[in-house]
Amino acid sequence: MRVLYKFIFLIIFVLFISNKGILASDTTTRVYLINPLNNISDTHIAKTNDTFAIDVYIHCSEISDSFNVIGLYLNFDTAFFAVDTIALNKSVISYFSNSNANFTDSNGQVITISLNSYSFSNTTGVINFSFFIKKYPSLEATLTNFVVKIATITCTALATFDSTTILWNTVEPRKTTLSQIGFNKISRYDTFLIYFEYKPSPPIVINFLDNICTNHQAATFTITKQYQSDSVLVYVNNTFYDTILDFSDTTINYVYTFTNQETHTFYFITRDTAGLLSDSSIIYRRNFDTTLPVINSYWNTISTIETTPEIIVTYSDANSGINTNAIAVYVDTGSGLK
Prior knowledge:
Helices cover 7% and strands 45% of the residues. The termini are far apart. The chain is built from one helix and 26 strands.
């Protein structure tokens, strides 16, 4: 089924690329969504829990289709992804704290896209934008043509393996329109297809003291994984080191033995039975140090009349340094060390 799925996707993708060659010179007035990582693609492949983005565009190059009011309304299935943020294109859209946004449209006039409202809901699965077109800086109403990005929508994938389409709403009262005195000028609504691919959850390390110094030669990591059948890849100092093949439980212990006195970094990656890899765990650090610090010199005056003499001690430590809060200075007053 997975092979067939990818084969179908490949056919769709090839056809899509072929069609984009036609769309490059297409003058059809339309609204569309684009993958910002690939600006010729209206599809995206999202891994489980990945964050991805979608750019919202308006394309209107024909003067006969000029418009002065924008209403963009999108519908999505909340079972597949959640909207995290919407970032308006601040270079062209004006609002209270961004009042100087403006650009030159296809007709040579300087305009601003004045924000009326925008919102989204992960409960009902809707994204709403509305704008007015105004001359800049007079803010008079005017008709316009342009091809411009309106906003970037950032989302988090929720589905593990499936596909979904983001649809433009074309029914009142949320009808997507580029309006010219009440008449909609949009000829085509281009949708956006998202494919979801499963990605294992990263392993979690429990109760490991991070970023400390130790003289114990072994460090024990208690690791939880999503499934008992998952293996765990171990990386030490950003280099693959070992594979944990303990399938006895979802919580396992792993012991690493230090061989060098230095600061070590550790992270872990899950690999499932299909060979798919998770993101990495949090990066952990531990400094292994068994070399004692050395006192190189110290103040050894036999007598002084100072009631608060300055005592100078120099030391060296090749690995982790010393804890200056734990320094103890002993003075021989003739009646023993104090």
